[in-house]
Amino acid sequence: MTFFSTLKKTGPAALAGALALGLSGTTAALAQDAAPALDTGNTAWMLVSTALVLMMTIPGLALFYAGMVRKKNVLATVMQSFAVCCLATVLWFVVGYSLAFSDGGGANAYVGGLSKAFFAGITVDTLWAPGVANIPEYLFAVFQMTFAIITPALIAGAFAERMKFSAMLLFTGLWLLVVYAPIAHWVWGGGFLGSAGVLDFAGGTVVHINAGVAGLVCALVLGKRQGYGSVNMAPYNLVYAVIGAALLWVGWFGFNAGSELAADGLAAAAMVNTQVAAATAGLAWMFTEWLVAKKPSVLGIISGAVAGLVAITPAAGFVNPTGAFVIGIVAGIVCYLAAVKLKHALGYDDSLDAFGVHGVGGIVGAILTGVFADKTINSLGENASVVTQLYGIVFTIVWTALATAAILYAVKALVGLRPSGQQEIEGLDVSQHGEVVQ
Asked: For the residues of 36-97, what is the DSSP string, one character each?
């Protein structure tokens, strides 16, 4: 039925009513458009991304680390990742999220407040980034929770096979609140590093430099494993490690592309960059090892891929794929030298190379973000600066190192850090958990 046939059949009065109804509907629609509404596409993508990032810790990191320790410590290593997941979840809900992402008032440059403790004030209708991402704040909170879970879990790689379980739990809880939450606020929650223009798309500073430096401090404070340098400490099962690395790689798409908080072109660019950097770094590490040690190892190529994933994390939403390619090459070579050559030259026992891969890889990625940021990919990259990136790196290293050391010595005074020498020789599976791998 056409406009004119309607007018002929119903008459002018009916038409006037229809027009009035149409106008009122238009007004209502405009009012509705003015108020941000939930974006279902973004929400669906972020639900998937959150699950992917959780998968990075359990089972990804748990298997990756478990495959690289000795048989007598496999269960203890898996237990660390699983227990950290549980503990970090509760602490993030209770107070961690609020410290990272609420307004800290006069101290907001350094830490958030307590207004969102226990997720107070958040409802099913509360949106995060209204008018931009339009996703539920509950979803943003749990997405960030998965980052708070994996960061302290990464640290465990540095002290693997030699920290008491009770000490690990106490250290993790304190570290999450004293170190992780404030640094997340500095960069992403309205703090001074983000305000200064430090670029960290998905956690190169907040997660990887933070965890890597903390891991190095743990390795130094705890000292070397019993028999380090004289006892065979070959990995128990590299197949476990490969499966874990593969789960990390797949989960990293949620980590990096999910950090856009939207299903859009920039998320796609972050995904492409993640894949390119990981693959390139895996090859770079493999060929460097092949040249130096004469054989390419399974452990080497998976370590290289993880190094590439680490290094592209701060840059994923700021660089183009060519930048990601170069970052992957540099990360693969530099992290190999740090994990294999630097560690042995300096004599510290970073069991699973948490510092060599995550600390060094995070620093490489953060610096190169300032070099390769492309404003055609992300307008925020227009003012990228290596100097600004170094500013963020230095502040993170200093605070993480000092606070981590203080926490470790406090934990040592309260419950002790290491099991007895005999218990360590027997293995943490038996001494800490009363279980063994058959």
From this structure: ----HHHHHHHHHHHHHHHHIIIIIIHHHHHHHS-GGGHHHHHHHHHHHHHHHHHHIIIIIH
What's the pTM? 0.91
Tokens of 132: 């931009």
Q: At what angle do helices 265-293 and 238-256 cross, to 10 degrees?
A: 150
Work out the mean pLDDT of the chain and round it to a whole number. Answer: 93
Helix axes 298-312, 321-336, angle to 10 degrees: 130
Three-state SS for 215-265 is HHHHHHHHCCCCCCCCCCCCCCCHHHHHHHHHHHHHHHHHHHHHHHCCCCH
Q: Residues 346, 349, 352, 354: is their CA dihedral positive or negative?
A: negative
How many CB atoms lie under 10 A from the CB of residue 221? 16
Q: How far is CA 166 from the centre of its chain?
A: 24
Residue 235 in this model has a pLDDT that exceeds 60 = yes
Helices 210-222 and 137-155 pack at an angle, to 10 degrees, of 30
Handedness of CA 97, 99, 100, 104 (dihedral sign): positive
- DSSP string computed for 131-164: TTT-EEHHHHHHHHHHHHHHHHHHHTTTSTTSS-
Question: In this structure, are residues 179 and 406 in contact, taking their beta carbons and an 8 Å threshold?
Answer: no
How far apart (Å, rounded) are the C-alpha atoms in residues 241 and 69? Answer: 10
Identify the residue whose tokens are 């530099």: 334
Neighbours of 20 (CB within 10 A): 10
Query: How high is the pLDDT of residue 400?
Result: 98
Query: Residue 136 forms beta bridges with which residues?
Result: 127
**Mean local confidence (pLDDT), 415-434:** 96
Q: Which two tokens stand for residue 55?
A: 């998968």
- In contact, 362 and 154? CB cutoff 8 Å: no
CB atoms within 10 A of CB 416: 13
Q: Locate 339 and state its tokens.
A: 């994990």
Residues β-bridged to residue 135 = 128
Strand, helix or coil at 150?
A: helix
Handedness of CA 177, 179, 180, 186 (dihedral sign): positive
The answer to whether 307 touches 285, Cβ cutoff 8 Å, is yes
- Residue 438 has a pLDDT of 84
Cα distance between residue 338 and residue 245, in whole Å = 19
pLDDT tops 50 at residue 13: no
**CB-based contact 91:176 (threshold 8 Å):** yes
pLDDT grade, residue 61 (50/70/90)?
very high
